[in-house]
Structure formats: C-alpha cells, structure tokens
Specification:
It is built from five helices and five strands, in the order E-H-E-H-E-H-E-H-E-H. By secondary structure, it is an alpha/beta fold. The protein has one domain: Response regulator (Rossmann fold), CATH 3.40.50. Strands 2-1-3-4-5 form a five-stranded parallel β-sheet, sandwiched between helices. Helix 4 links the parallel strand 4 and strand 5. The chain is globular.
Amino acid sequence: MKKILVVDDEPAIVDIIEDLLTRSGFETTAAYDAIEAEAAIKHRKPDLILLDIMLPKIDGFAFLKKLKENPEFKEIPVICVTVRSEKEDIEKGKSLGAVAYITKPFDPENLIASVKKALNLD
C-alpha cells in the first residue's frame, strides 16, 4: 500500500484529503506544518507528498526547496495542493520540483488521478 503524507494547516482539508485517499486504497499520514512534515518524512518515508503552500512558520515553497535539496528525499514526488493559483506560483512550484500543482477547491477525481499518475499507477 502506497503511503502519502498530507501537509496542510487546515484540519478540515486534511480530513477531506485523507478520506479520499483512504477510500482509494492509500495509507495516509498528516502533518500540519513543515516542521511536522519533516519529522514525518524522517520517521516513515512516504511514497508521495501532498503539500499546501500557505503553511505557518515555513511556507510550502521553502519546504519543497529544502526537500529537493536533500539526496535522501529528493526523489519523493510532491503535488502542491493550494489556494495560490497565480501563474507565478504554479511556475515556482513546478520549478522547485513539484510533479503537479492543484488549486483549491479541487475536484476529488482530479486529485486522485494526479496522485495515481505521480505514483505511476495510472
């Protein structure tokens, strides 16, 4: 079973995403900021990360950059899931190494399709 780390500071969003992923056959772990996410990745390396950009303390872009600079974790695919929908934000996310960029509110089927594509399950 593929493990997915959901990183978002809004518990309601985390619950919705985790429910969707669990019903689609994935195992999930949640982190509510980048510091928790870093600890979760070290504890149990996920197969994929769903990352919000607007996080407290350290934003998602800074976290993504740090993750991709770490040889141990740089191969973990990351999908940005965020309300930030400006063209510059999308380009920045992809230039930092995100495999996809999904804006909120998101279509559940599109999210699952993107997850499967990132994990080469489609």
